[in-house]
Amino acid sequence: MATSQLSCLPADIFRSSAYGVTPSKLLGLGSFGSVYKGNLPFEDDPVAIKVFNLRRYGAPSSFIAECEVLRNTRHRNLVKVISLCSTVDPTGSDFKALVFHYMPNGSLDRWLHPEDHGCDKRRFLSLCERINIALDVAYALDYLHNQCASPVIHCDLKPSNVLLDLKMTAHVSDFGLAKFMCASSFEGRASSTSLASLKGSIGYIAPEYGMGGPISKKGDVYSYGVLLLEMFTGKRPTDKEFKDGLSLHKHVDTKFPQGTAEILDPAILQSDLLGGNLEMMQTCVLPMIKVGLLCSMASPQGRLGMGQVSTEILTVKRVFHELCSRNGVSSLDKYC
């Protein structure tokens, strides 16, 4: 949906308590602003309103970057913008906001780490849901990298930027750091963009960026690999145990494949792999872990492309459904 085709709403709508931009409706805080659950006069369903903190360095350019990406992309696994606001409020201050479809199941981060969000653990992500979410995110990145007229590098992929709708379909969000790449760039490198303009998230940012390397598709692939390992271990790449040269990648790699059960998220072991389902481990879990390891290699040249990642995970999904069907387990039983 083109940004130029969206109606630009007046700032007083967003500042009105009737429409939800109040502290009680706060959904989360980001690098450049706050996100609220709200309602708009012309929308029956609730929306998510991202209000930019323009006093924060980089916020105005983040708003522009996000608008540009949303104007040039359209995919089922990307967040969809409804409207925007770029104006001056009654105090004479600049005001910028974006309105998105509300995602009732929140972020992937909330599901992986409910204790950090004040949530209970009564409902875990099933193995099927983890596979589906991984595939959704892979499709989104494959689209951004390989199917847009000007390839897009997300630059900040992490669980909090993956949102889940009512059916647990994943949508990649937050394009405030995204970069457009010249389609003719050699091996997918965005040589025109300097490292100084990149501010990804610690633990997910590709190691070559820290050495002044160019922004590239393989940087997003690295972030995806870390995210995938986090989905299957339940551990953040920034957990305290990862120090003195030990990373999430190394933690998993040292146990793969024979000791994989030792580093899996206990929720997977307690549900889908209860009783030691070796076939499920061999044909579904191990291939997913392998993709995560290949994507999070230190060397960009060793990482997979997102097209290949999508193909690999789609194969795992098909195998999973075949196993469930053979064992008489319905998709509904697996929340899938």
From TrEMBL:
Catalysed reaction equations from the record: L-threonyl-[protein] + ATP = O-phospho-L-threonyl-[protein] + ADP + H(+); L-seryl-[protein] + ATP = O-phospho-L-seryl-[protein] + ADP + H(+)
Entry EC no(s): 2.7.11.1
A GO term for molecular function: protein serine/threonine kinase activity
InterPro entries in alphabetical order: Kinase-like_dom_sf, LRR_receptor-like_kinase, Prot_kinase_dom, Protein_kinase_ATP_BS, Ser/Thr_kinase_AS
Key word DNA-binding present: no
Residues that, per the record, bind ATP: 50
Membrane topology: Single-pass membrane protein
Compartments where located: Cell membrane
Domain spans labelled Protein kinase: 21-324
Enzyme type, top EC level: transferase
Cited Pfam families: Pkinase (PF00069)
Gene Ontology cellular component terms for the protein in this record: plasma membrane
Keyword set, alphabetical order: ATP-binding, Cell membrane, Glycoprotein, Kinase, Leucine-rich repeat, Membrane, Nucleotide-binding, Phosphoprotein, Receptor, Repeat, Serine/threonine-protein kinase, Signal, Transferase, Transmembrane, Transmembrane helix
SUPFAM superfamilies attached to this UniProt entry: Protein kinase-like (PK-like)
Family: Belongs to the protein kinase superfamily.
Name of the protein this chain belongs to: non-specific serine/threonine protein kinase
Organism, scientific name: Panicum hallii
